[in-house]
TrEMBL record:
UniProt-listed PROSITE patterns: ADH_SHORT
Keywords linked to the UniProt accession: Oxidoreductase
EC number: 1.1.1.100
GO molecular function: 3-oxoacyl-[acyl-carrier-protein] reductase (NADPH) activity
The protein's name in its UniProt record: 3-oxoacyl-ACP reductase FabG
Species of origin: Gordonia oryzae
Protein's GO biological process: fatty acid elongation
PANTHER family, per database record: 3-OXOACYL-[ACYL-CARRIER-PROTEIN] REDUCTASE, CHLOROPLASTIC, SHORT-CHAIN DEHYDROGENASES/REDUCTASES FAMILY MEMBER
Entry similarity comment: Belongs to the short-chain dehydrogenases/reductases (SDR) family.
Domain Ketoreductase: 9-192
InterPro entries: KR_dom, NAD(P)-bd_dom_sf, Sc_DH/Rdtase_CS, SDR_fam
């Protein structure tokens, strides 16, 4: 049998203390990776890392992805504990939903900064390390909202669409350096946040899904694993939808 897909690789995942990010971290560890969890909440990051294993397997670090210095420190921690980053997953995100009429400038800026600038920081900082080593995989988390736009999410939809454009541009810049950059667009994924939706909103979204169910965080994680591993060695600049067929 072939060995683990990410054996002895160093993976850095932002926003990984919970939800999709944590599911990705769990699967990466199962596939042989050493994982560094970056999260705005230092305590949550450290707790998540402890759940994954001892310090030889995973470490948790406080990281504000909107600050380049924080991302530098995150990557330096990875190098110190496990070696230079092989896989970077830019997953950190927030929501500040409101109709455009009611959304404040601060709410718009917060979402753009965390998602778009945060992904830019993670991509460029990891790429600077990877290009010197002529290898590496970067996985950016976009969203179906970036494809079709959602009411009450002009900030989030704009940021997630921007991540797609950024992914493609970065992929073109880095391909000849042996670095691949791809994106994932999840649809309705079951989580504490989505399950807190009003039933009417949940039912409306479910009616749009041909597979007639919400996705699980593990189903996003397996796609992240595919894009991080040699299984996708001839793929860069791609956007993979994990949506149950919603808005095909």
């Amino acid at each position: 049998m072939p060995g683990p897909l990410l054996k002895d690789q160093t993976a850095v995942i932002t926003g990984a203390a919970q939800g999709i990010g944590f599911a990705i971290a769990q699967l990466f560890v199962d596939e042989g990776a050493h994982v560094v969890i970056g999260d705005i909440n230092a305590e949550a990051a450290q707790k998540a890392a402890t759940e994954l294993g001892d310090a030889g397997v995973a470490v948790g670090v406080a990281c504000d992805v909107t600050r380049g210095d924080d991302v530098d420190a995150l990557l330096a921690t990875a190098a110190q504990h496990f070696g230079p980053v092989d896989v970077m997953v830019n997953n950190a995100g927030i929501t500040r939903d409101a109709t455009m009429r009611n959304m404040t400038e601060e709410q718009f800026d917060q979402v753009i900064n965390v998602h778009l600038k945060g992904t830019w920081n993670g991509t460029r900082k990891a790429a600077a390390i990877m290009r010197e080593r002529k290898s590496g995989a970067i996985v950016n988390l976009s969203s179906l909202s970036g494809k079709v736009g959602m009411v009450g999410q002009t900030n989030y939809s704009a940021a997630k669409a921007g991540i797609v454009g950024m992914t493609k541009a970065a992929a073109k810049e880095l391909a000849h350096h042996g670095v691949r950059v791809n994106a994932i667009q999840p649809g309705l994924i079951r989580s504490a946040m989505t399950e807190a939706m009003p039933q009417k909103a949940w039912d409306q979204k479910m009616a749009e899904i041909p597979m007639n169910r919400a996705g699980e965080v593990s189903e996003v994680a397996t796609v992240a694993l595919f894009l991080a591993s040699h299984l996708s060695s001839y793929m860069t600049g791609t956007v993979m939808e994990v949506t149950g067929g919603r808005f095909m």
